[in-house]
Amino acid sequence: MDLVNKSRVTKKGQITIPARLRRKLGIKPGTKVCFVECGSEIIFQPVTKEYIRSVCGMLKSDTSVTEELLNERRKEREREEAKLEKLGAR
User: Fold this and answer.
1) 74 is in which domain, residue-wise?
2) How many domains in the chain?
3) CA-to-CA distance for 47 and 70, rounded, in angstroms?
4) Which residues fall within 8 angstroms of residue 16, CB to CB, at 6 or more apart?
5) CA 43/CA 38 separation, integer angstroms
6) Residue 66 lies in a domain
7) Quick check: helix, strand or coil at residue 8?
8) Residue 82: CA atoms inside 13 Å, Cβ hemisphere, count?
9) Is residue 33 part of a domain?
């Protein structure tokens, strides 16, 4: 079980991340972080190379992004053409 680490929020809304956690998670000056609201909790996620590697490929699809964009554009064009046909029929 991980230990509970505490920190106070300053008047500016800043917190200090305990050194042990910074070392463990590879947080260095300039490391970007994300705060994710999850119900009444806040999840703090450092955006490190290790984190990016761990989520890489997570949203992999059978079709390429280009194919998906082209398909979506084709559908949009078909919808627009159908609208134009309706307007022409009036």
Assistant:
1) 62-90
2) 1
3) 31
4) 7
5) 7
6) yes
7) coil
8) 6
9) no
- Structure confidence by residue, pLDDT tens digits, 21-76: 999 888 999 999 989 899 999 988 888 877 777 777 766 777 788 888 999 999 99
* pLDDT at residue 62, rounded to an integer: 78
35 in any annotated domain: no
Q: How far apart are CA 60 and CA 24, in angstroms?
A: 29
Task: Give CA–CA dist 44/36, Å, rounded.
Answer: 7
The answer to whether the CB of 44 falls within 8 A of the CB of 32 is: no
Q: Please provide residue 25's backbone torsions phi and psi, each rounded to the nearest 5 degrees.
A: -95, 0
Provide the terminal-to-terminal Cα distance of the chain, rounded to the nearest Å. 70
Determine contact, residues 28/47, Cβ cutoff 8 Å. no
Instruction: Yes or no: say if 8 and 15 are a contact pair by the CB < 8 Å rule.
Output: yes
